[in-house]
Write a structure and sequence with these properties.
Helices cover 62% and strands 0% of the residues. With 82 residues, it is mainly α. The protein is flat, with a radius of gyration of 16 Å. The relative contact order is 0.12.
Length: 82
């Protein structure tokens, strides 16, 4: 979570750090992508389960998960209260 908070607070610096590992994206492009992410969110409980189910629904759309996958059950299975 510390790294997520750093990225959220310092997207330009994080992009500069990562840029050498990107074959195509330039630091400005990486920083823009980082600004669009939600690294500063740390959901838990039912909110996290809902987000996991939503991500699983999206993975079904691109054929990563089977169309028959029950995403609510899947989210409950992979969720851990830590």
């Amino acid at each position: 979570m510390e790294a997520q908070e750093f990225i959220a607070a310092n997207p330009d610096e994080a992009a500069e750090i990562y840029a050498p590992y990107s074959a195509a994206a330039k630091p400005a492009q990486l920083a823009a992508m980082l600004r669009s992410h939600t690294h500063h969110e740390h959901p838990g409980g039912d909110t996290l389960k809902q987000q996991l189910a939503a991500y699983a629904d999206e993975l079904k759309l691109v054929n990563v998960l089977k169309p028959s996958t029950d995403t609510a059950k899947f989210a409950n299975k992979i969720y851990a209260a830590v």
